[in-house]
Amino acid sequence: MQRAYVLEPGAYLRxxxxxxxxxxxxxxxxxIPLQGLQQLTLIGYTSLSGAVLDVLIRKRIETxxxxxxxxxxxxxxxxxxKHVERRRAQYLRLxxxxxxxxxARVLVRGKLLNAARFLALRGNQLxxxxxxxxxxxxxxxxxxxxxxxxxxxxxxxxxxxxxxxxAAFPMLIRVPGFIFNGRNRRPPLDPVNALLSFMxxxxxxxxxxxxxxxxxxxxLGALHAVDYGRPSLACDLVEEWRSFLGDRLVLTxxxxxxxxxxxxxxRTLANMDGVDERDLRSRRPVEMKPGVCRAFMNAYEQWMGxxxxxxxxxxxxxxxxxxxxxxRVFSAFIQGQAEAYVPFAWSKVN
Length: 350
Known about the structure:
CATH 3.100.10.20, alpha/beta, 2 domains, 4-stranded mixed beta sheet
């Protein structure tokens, strides 16, 4: 087992031999083998014994803490990667304004082209001219990015393309009961947005983990501004995966009715401010029930383990492996082994 998720609210983890034992209401609710465990993700409120913390640190098991809604809260960090020269190269290369602008441009272009391809493919499958028209507009915006000589203009173009994309998104939902009136977050106001936000958080953590394995600093990127606590590079490199990995899975679960509207808890609230995270949970407009959250995580793990043939080498690689591959491509660019970063292009794979 390489990855494990704990979703049970109010759970307590205790070390038992070579396992982590999950307790809830004083009773054992399952075990997680320590052998081969590389990442532990705690979703919600889980308590850890001192022995559990000790073994997580000794075995260098990456531990990620997410809120009940899937928002990133913290990460147990043992130490930084020892490859100082690689990080120094990153700081030097991303200190040059032209390099930052050019890198941000290819990141936005990559995101837009993948989004356009997704809409075009679904437009052809569903014979929806509006989807194909939206894809063409986004593709044209991607082609016009070369004239943008300012980061704020690039970010504005990305935002405008996202508005076009999500305006067409309701046509991708083919079952009744799910209503999508545009992208919203912090907090999400409907089930579709809740699923999208959760998915994007998981993908960002995938990218962040790969960045740390590569020895880069996840807090210095190009497209997203440096801000205290923001993993800007992870936010940059997750953009190319949103439609290919994130939106496809969410829409598959919705359209195949693996998730239904009654899998969510709805609350009508006048005030969404809370005094702490526990209070905020009771004020969340929409929330996945524990059962559907577990099913979502199972589907996510199966999805990330999907294997495809990478056309450049002919090798079989998982979706998770694709993310790791792209981070290595970015690392090669940072170290001067490539003139520019080349984002993942959906057009290269079926």
